[in-house]
Specification:
The chain is 32% helix and 20% strand. With 503 residues, the protein is α+β, with helices and mostly antiparallel strands. The strands form 7 sheets. It has a 6-stranded mixed β-sheet with strand order 2-3-6-5-1-22, with helices on both faces. The protein has a 6-stranded mixed β-sheet with strand order 13-12-16-17-19-18, with helices on one face. It has a two-stranded antiparallel sheet with strand order 4-7. Helix 2 packs parallel to helix 3 and helix 7 packs parallel to helix 11.
């Protein structure tokens, strides 16, 4: 982070100012006049944006409840000293420093007709938890900031992946970790000396508590024969539950529409992944085909994608939560629910290109030390899933978050439905333009209004698209779920790089 300032002038600045004047204050946007008292409140907002979903702070722009239209344009010339103080404190008083903070100086005509400037501070969502020196930790509400308690800071740290349940020591006997899977791991690592506690301590999987060594939760998950049973005494779970349904939905009623009784998969992590993968593939077997080596089972989904989805659910789940991983198999899809939300800055919209961010780095690192490890190189697994589904002419994996549940979860959906050839063009259109309307689809696909409507309705029902309205049928448009920029001010459209200067 530095003090570089982007300056915007001319027509681009005018367009941007008009967009700002039309923007209401929200969870991701706030405006303030510049004054000496402004600095502290502005720091609160910067901290809150970073700790929530990011946002934009506009300085020199009056609150919309106090003025309207161009009467809000006071500019930053009212108190340049306060602006300098804010820029200085944004570097020194936000702990840790917020990376990627962007400063943008926008030329404009002020309310009195004089030339002036607004200052925009764009704050990205941070993978860390930030506080203000001597002024607490803040999060963003609908259109205001709130200081959070120590308990809430801890909870936020867990959600962001700053701290993880895997590193918590547990009062569990080391003898319960001296299992065949531990001995396989120890042989692979080449351990020649030391007992189990000593070896675990040397590789960071045990800690001293009150002078005694205790295994970390990660060690219990990796090596105990029944980690789920051991962790139940500590109000958390570690098993996988598999449900195979008849049809495409869960039928309500006294008798569930299950093809077979639910299956619980337990065991140390590497074994659990292998068992769950084998069970799901067996349930999905669609027939036999003759191969060079004899008959081979054919699955409706790429096998590598199934295994990677299960592996990710096991490795990246939040092991604080008292909930098992759920795998639900339907005729047309598989749903894999992993307890916890996405860590860091990972979102459903950016997961295919965001790279790696492990909630449980100890688990991920040590699991790679097993013979034939289930996890591939960091950041490559999800990209492989998208590539394999595309190669199989299936829809891409669909990631979502269930934030409203008492026990939040990340869900990946794999669809057993052939992707229509036109979908790639539709997907690309939405990626480039943000949304699609019926007339766009008619032009892309060369179909009439009725056919386009049926295609859009089917994609909405499948969860591929979401339908939005802004008044009247002509304003009905379609987006992909969880777009990158659902709220806040879209600044990029008005700022061609060749018109920007750096100071």
């Amino acid at each position: 982070m530095g003090l570089s300032m982007i300056e915007v002038n001319g027509p681009e600045a005018a367009t941007l100012v008009n967009n700002l004047l039309a923007q209401s204050e929200s969870a991701r946007f706030e405006s303030k006049r510049v004054s000496g008292k402004m600095v502290g409140k502005a720091l609160d907002t910067l901290c809150a944006f970073a700790n929530t979903s990011g946002g934009t702070l506009a300085l020199g722009l009056e609150d919309p409840l106090k003025a309207v239209g161009r009467d809000r344009l006071f500019g930053i010339g009212e108190n340049p000293e306060a602006v300098d103080e804010l820029r200085r404190k944004a570097l020194t008083h936000l702990l840790p420093a917020v990376e990627g903070l962007r400063w943008m100086k926008i030329a404009c005509k002020l309310r009195d007709g004089a030339d002036g400037h607004l200052l925009l501070l764009q704050v990205p969502q941070s993978p860390k938890v930030h506080s203000i020196l001597d002024n607490g930790t803040w999060t963003r509400l609908e259109a205001s900031n709130r200081e959070i308690s120590a308990t809430e800071i801890t909870e936020l740290s867990y959600r962001r992946g700053v701290i993880s349940a895997e590193s918590e020591p547990l009062p569990i006997a080391f003898e319960l970790l001296d299992t065949p899977i531990w001995r396989l791991f120890a042989a692979q690592r080449g351990f020649l000396t030391g007992d189990v506690p000593d070896r675990l301590f040397r590789i960071g999987l045990a800690k001293r508590v009150g002078g005694e060594l205790q295994p970390l939760r990660a060690a219990v998950l990796l090596f105990a024969e029944e980690p789920g049973g051991l962790l139940a005494a500590h109000q958390s779970r570690a098993d996988i539950r598999i449900f195979h349904y008849r049809g495409n939905r869960i039928e309500p009623g006294a008798v569930p529409n299950l093809l077979k009784p639910p299956r619980t998969i337990s065991g140390p992590m590497s074994v659990q992944i292998a068992r769950a993968n084998a069970h799901v593939l067996d349930a999905l077997a669609a027939g036999l085909t003759l191969a060079e080596s004899g008959f081979k089972t054919v699955h409706r989904y790429p096998e590598r994608v199934i295994k990677e989805a299960i592996t990710n659910a096991v490795i990246h789940r939040d092991y604080r939560l008292n909930r098992d991983i759920l795998i639900r198999i339907f005729d047309n899809r598989i749903e894999i629910l992993s307890p916890g939300l996405f860590p860091g800055t990972i979102t459903p919209a950016n997961i295919s290109r965001a790279g790696s961010f492990a909630r449980n780095p100890l688990i991920a690192r040590n699991l790679r030390e097993f013979p034939e490890p289930p996890n591939v190189d960091a950041g490559e697994g999800v990209r492989m899933m998208f590539s394999e589904m595309r190669a199989a002419n299936l829809y891409p994996p669909f990631f979502s978050e269930d934030r409203d549940s008492v026990q939040p979860a990340v869900m990946v959906t794999l669809r057993n439905e052939e992707r229509p050839p036109i979908w790639e063009q539709v997907s690309d259109w939405i990626d480039r333009h943000g949304a699609l309307v019926n007339s766009d689809l008619r032009r892309i696909a060369g179909v009439d209004t009725l056919k386009a409507s049926k295609m859009l309705k089917a994609w909405v029902e499948e969860g591929i698209l979401r339908r939005e309205e802004s008044g009247g049928k002509r304003r009905t448009f379609y987006r992909k779920p969880n777009p990158d920029n659902e709220s806040g001010v879209d600044l990029s459209l008005s700022l061609p790089l060749d018109n920007e200067t750096q100071k």
